[in-house]
Design brief:
The structure is a single chain. By secondary structure, the protein is α+β, with helices and mostly antiparallel strands. About 35% of the residues lie in helices and about 20% in strands. The chain has a 4-stranded antiparallel β-sheet. β3 and β4 form a beta hairpin. It binds zinc ion (ZN). Zinc ion binds next to α4.
């Protein structure tokens, strides 16, 4: 656990979450996700993504491997290394 992850454990802006990913209202958490309403946070790696609708946020929440690089690497292997080999 990093300091940053501990800081997001309060319920301010909390919308929903799974075992690995939490969705927050970006404004209430003070998270900058390019002006998006929702911030999707990988609890394991601390990577962030933004969404403007709750439906999008919930979809992204179920697929952290599509926006969290460490999750993607864990699922698919290191694609950048394969590409340059
Ligand atoms: Zn991750």
């Amino acid at each position: 656990m990093t300091r940053r992850q501990q800081a997001t454990e309060n319920t301010l802006g909390y919308v929903t979450g799974t075992r690995r990913v939490t969705v927050y209202l970006a404004d209430e958490q003070g998270i900058d996700v390019g002006g998006c309403k929702y911030a999707i946070v990988c609890d394991e790696h601390g990577d962030l993504w933004g969404a403007n609708t709750r439906a999008d946020a919930e979809d992204l929440m179920r697929h952290p491997d599509e926006w969290c690089l460490p999750c993607e690497t864990a699922k698919y292997g290191d694609r950048s290394r394969q590409a340059t080999a």
